[in-house]
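In response to reviewer comment 3 from the previous cycle, which asked for concrete evidence that the modeling workflow produces usable outputs, we include below a single protein chain processed end to end. The sequence was submitted unchanged, and the resulting structure tokens are shown without manual editing.
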Amino acid sequence: MPTLLISGASSGIGREVALQAARQGTTVLVLGRRAALLDELAAETGGRCIPIPVDVSDTAAAQRAVDRAVEATGRIDAALLNVGAGPSFNLAGGTAAEILHTMDANYRVTVNMLVPLIAVMKRQRSGLIVHTNSLAGVNGTPMQGPYSAAKAACRLLIDTARIELKPYGVRLMSVYPGFVATDRVSDDGLPKPFEISAADAAARILRAMRGRRPDVLFPAPTATLVRALRMLPKSVAGRIMLRFTPPEY
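The workflow returned the following structure tokens.
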């Protein structure tokens, strides 16, 4: 994996993936809104991370960022689409604007990066695009309704792209972490059973990228619970999930 592009690299899982990949000798193109944090990341890795400040919610800006990445390294061998947000949310009292904002923060930004990367990798006739999804995107999850819906939309989009891009030598993979300890979710009020560190999540993602599986779910206890819930009647699965929900919710 000579070159790796990461969107959402200024903090959390994206930053940890960049650090670990750089230590392994990969040239990493790091994208994010916070230029100062990207510069710190570049300095920490001895220049192996190339900072490209960008707000990928802007479609044209995302295209320009991918163009800059290709200009800097000549090609993009792999990309990790790692931008997203999902604050706790109760559909009994939410607004349409809040729900649609969560959709934009997860689905729109994925599309904005996915389209130009597909074009690059089609020309190369090779490449790997990895999307950081979530186990919340597998089942409708209390306190995470809009986030679950956005991640489910991303899941189906990536699944379809995987089929359609195979003739061009482009692979797509979805990774589904459970709860990961990052600054973004440290005080969101959600219960976090089987939480893992961002460094652990990053190591698992990099291992997955070296493999061939299209979907990777982790950690095992949370993934097993999610798979089991999908097999149960929805009424039963709903009662079980409510047991993990704070009473005041």
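DSSP finds eight helices and nine strands in the chain. We consider this sufficient to address the reviewer's concern, and the full set will be provided in the supplementary archive.
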